[in-house]
Amino acid sequence: MSDQKTILDQMRNAQIQDTYIHPDDLAWVPFPGAPGIDMKVLRVSSESGTWTVLFQCTAGSGFPRHLHLGAGEYLMISGEMEVRGGAKAGGITAVAGDYGYEPTGMIHDWTNFVSDSVFFFTNHGPIQFMDDDDNIVGVLDWQGILAIDASAPAPV
Length: 156
Ligand SMILES: [Fe+2]
Known about the structure:
The protein is mainly beta. 13% of the residues lie in helices and 44% in strands. It has one domain (28-150): Sandwich (Jelly Rolls), CATH 2.60.120.10. The strands form two sheets. Strands 1, 2, 3, 4, 6, 7, 8 and 10 form an eight-stranded antiparallel sheet that branches.
């Protein structure tokens, strides 16, 4: 490649920014309302409201009932996650290597972890948490993710 082309590429790339995260450098942060679940925040977008995290979930932990106000995507890295009761109840059982897409408007009751699990997760907007009577108990958006992340201990 010519020096001129390299310079032009650098000029163009300087106007945008790519992201590189080494998760081992980040501390796990407790995910509120879900004992046994921690996360590492990889990226948050104030423009699109998308947030991307790594979740670590102990066996027996789970996310309470929620409504996706933005679509979610996940990739299981290890462990086993049961969505909507798992495959035995007509839902999904996701294991290492599995990818899932959760459309906007999807309601998930108890999403539980059968074994210690780690998964990559992106949500394209907020998640609304509800009780069994559909009363809203909280809405988690990109700003909430940043606030939780700010409570993380400094990396060592
Ligand atoms: Fe969900």
